[in-house]
Amino acid sequence: MHHFLIVIEKTEKKYSAYSPDLLGCVATGKTKKEVEQNMYPAIEFHLKGMEEDNMPIPKPTSIAEYIVIK
Predict the structure, then answer these.
(1) Which candidate among 41, 42, 46, 65 keeps its CA 20 to 30 Å from the CA of 24?
(2) First to last CA, the chain
(3) Beta bridge partners of 67
């Protein structure tokens, strides 16, 4: 089982997401929930391609945290 951080961003008309640890792995969706759901098969597809190309699966290193600025 792998755990990868995804970053979700709001655009003018939809949402997009990517994983900082998986370069080029992206998805879009009309809603936050949809883009999050779309990232599951995107990551699975990305990892499968890496395995087929005999590339090592990267260890997740990205973390996220909110900070408060007053």
Answers:
(1) 65
(2) 39
(3) none
| Residue ranges in the chain modelled with pLDDT below 50 | none
**Total residue length of the chain:** 70
> What pLDDT is attached to residue 52?
97
* pLDDT at res. 2: 83
Q: Which residues contact 18 (CB under 8 A, 6 or more apart)?
A: 6, 7, 25, 26, 27
Q: Which domain holds residue 47?
A: 7-51
Residue 61's pLDDT is: 94
The number of folded domains in the chain is 1
